[in-house]
Structure prediction request, 182 residues.
Amino acid sequence: MPPKALFFLLISLFFGSSLLAETRAYLLEVYDHISKSQWSITTGFAPDTYINSHGGGNRLSVMIKATWMCYGDTANFQPACPMPKAREPKFQAGDLVEVLLEKHITQSWQGRVELSLYREDLKSNVYGVRFGEKRQLYNRYYEFNLKLKQAVTIIKPPGQENLPENPAAEGALPSAIGTPAP
Prediction:
């Protein structure tokens, strides 16, 4: 056995137990053109692989809403890890924000925050924003590229004080979101 191969074998045996795998997870918004339905799914499939393995490009369209890294063992068909929560977020789901990017096509556009997550690889919170007045366009932005225009307040009926603070992120019904704050 060549010395380089032996050295590599010994190093990999010594450090093999401390190595961790990583995979990328995706939150996809899927549109089925035949059944005219749409849904969101968290998966380890890249968008093109998801389309090809679930009906093909003539049937499905996919948009990436968020992506993040999963660390550790993902073998044996384990589901993708959950989306990481934002760290000290400036914006909540439902907030009306304005885009501050200069010389960008979305400069000064206003949209609603749909989701927020912390990207460890970017060391930043990332927000998914939907622009209802712009044909439901969706895009992702860093926290410092957005400015709060109008916060959404949560109305909690008497006796239901245990509603989540961020109902859109918790999967609660949209009726739990109250009226915009002045």
User: Anything to note?
Assistant: The helical segments are 3-15, 47-53, 167-170. Residues 22-83 form one domain.
